[in-house]
Write the C-alpha cells for this entry.
Amino acid sequence: MHIALGAICVLYFVDRLQQLGLPTAIYICLFAAVWTIYLVDHKLDARKEGLATPRRHFHRASRRLIDGLILFNLIIGLLAMAFIPRPVVLGGLFLAGLSLVYLRFAGQLGSWRVKELLTALCYGAGVMLAPLYYGPFWPTLILTSQLAVLALANLLLFSMFEKDADEAEGFSSWVTEMGSRRSEHLLRILLALTIVSAIAFMVTLYWRFQLFMLVASLILFFISFKRDYFGQRERYRVFGDLVFILPLALLP
C-alpha cells in the first residue's frame, strides 16, 4: 500500500503545482492500479519454493487476503473509470496491461531482464498520465522522465540490498545479472543524472518539483553509502519509499 500512497502523493504534488484540479476518480484509479500491480508481483514471486525472506513468506501465507485485495482494487478501479476521460483510461489500461503481461511471462524470458526498467517507466508514465493529458504536455513530459529515472534508481538501490536473498531464492534482477560493482556505477550515474537535471531546471521548470528531485536523489545517495546501517531491518526500504512522500512537505 505504501507504494500506491507514494504515487498518490507525487500526483497530488504535480496537480497542485500545475493547478489542474484533477478529479478524485483519477486518484482512486491510480491507487488501485499501482497496488494491484504490486500485489500481483508479490503473489507471483511467492509461488516459488524455498523462500528465505520474511516479506515473501508473508505474501505466500496471505494468498487469500492478497486475492481479496486484488479483487477489491479491480472493482473500485473499474467503477472510478466511468468518471475519467477516455484517453486517460486507455493510457492507464495499456500501462497496467503491459506491466501485468510482463510479470506473468517474466520467468520465460531467460536472461532478458527488463523488469526494473519497465517498472520505472510504467510508474513514471502512470503517475503523470493525467497531468500529461490535462496540463502542458512538453514540460510535464520532462517531469515524467525525471520521475522515471528516480524510480529506476530507487529500484536498483533496493535490488542491491536484496542481491544475496534474490540469488538464494532463485530470483533475477539487474544486480544479480550485472554484479554489485557495475550496479553501483549505474546507480551513481542515474542519481547524478537526476541531480544535474534538477539543478538545470530549478529556475525554469517548477522549482518545487526540482527541489523534490534533488533532495530525493541525495537521500538515495546517502542510503547507498551507508549500506551497513540501512541494510538492518530493511531500513533501506522504509527510507527509500519515503522519498515519494517527500512532496507533501513541498506543497505550494
User: Anything to note?
Assistant: DSSP finds 13 helices and no strands in the chain.
